[in-house]
Amino acid sequence: VILVPYRPEHVPKYHEWMQSVFLQEMTASEPLTIDQEYEMQKSWHMDENKCTFIILLKPDVDYELTNQEIKSAKMVGDINLFFNDHDSSSIAEIEIMIAGNNIFINF
């Protein structure tokens, strides 16, 4: 897999995922409009207590991917890191969401 920062170009697919009642329930999320989703992406980007990454499927190749190849890789989920421990900046809660159907990831 490839992890990339959650950017505005990811919002339409992310918004599509989050229309799923199942994903809303599993992530304790409320349905948002696309405009609200763009605002949420901005706020997450600026939040010092949270890091959000999009999970992309890495093509099965033996060379370093170009930026264009990374941009065209399939989005399959996201990872959130929450730095909520005020006593230690090195401790974070992690949340991983695999959103697509029929996704198989080999580690």
TrEMBL record:
Keywords on record: Acyltransferase, Transferase
UniProt superkingdom: Eukaryota
GO molecular function, one term: N-acetyltransferase activity
PANTHER family: ALPHA_BETA-TUBULIN-N-ACETYLTRANSFERASE 9, N-ACETYLTRANSFERASE 9
Name the UniProt record assigns to this protein: Uncharacterized protein
Species annotation: Gigaspora rosea
Taxonomic classification: Eukaryota, Fungi, Fungi incertae sedis, Mucoromycota, Glomeromycotina
